[in-house]
Amino acid sequence: MEFPAVTEHMIWGNDLTFKVANKMFAHTVLEPGHPVWLSFKTSPENFYQLTERQSIIPAPYLARAQWIALETRDALPTTELASLLREAYDLVVAKLPAKTRASLSSATPSAKSNKSAKTPSRKIGDDRKEKKTKNRNRKLRIKRT
Which of 7, 60, 87, 118 is the most exposed place for a label (fewest CB within 10 A)? Predict the structure, then answer.
């Protein structure tokens, strides 16, 4: 299964996270014996329906964002799982800025990244700092004219 512009990131030691435009939509633990096999985002409607099923629970730490966790590989049929992962991807893409969404349509599917947790990444506040700098520079240009 391939989606446009998806990157894979090894984080927290032995966990594999799938992201689009640096936003998570699915996460799996590669360590055997872990109580959760796969977690992913879902719609609010599906969240409540799916968590009623056996071997599907609200995802630890992410349930408030409508993420579910599959306790076993056979918790969902393969076709339904593929459909739900596509929905997770689409939900994340829908919340991206229009410019980013447009660039995704021309991206190649499934670019892999071996980024580890120790690799420095942009912090959440970086975007705000960039906007403040741009606004400050814009104000300076306006004052000079």
Answer: 118
Residue-number span of the structural domain to which 63 is assigned: 6-144
pTM equals 0.69
Q: Strand pairing of 15-20 and 38-41?
A: unpaired
For the segment 39-97, what is each residue's pLDDT rounded down to a tens digit? 999 999 999 999 999 999 999 888 899 999 999 888 999 999 999 999 999 999 999 99
CATH of the domain at 56: 3.90.1150.30
Residue whose tokens read 């229009």: 98
Give the contacts of 131 (CB within 8 A, at least 6 positions apart): none
Q: How far is CA 47 from the centre of its chain?
A: 16
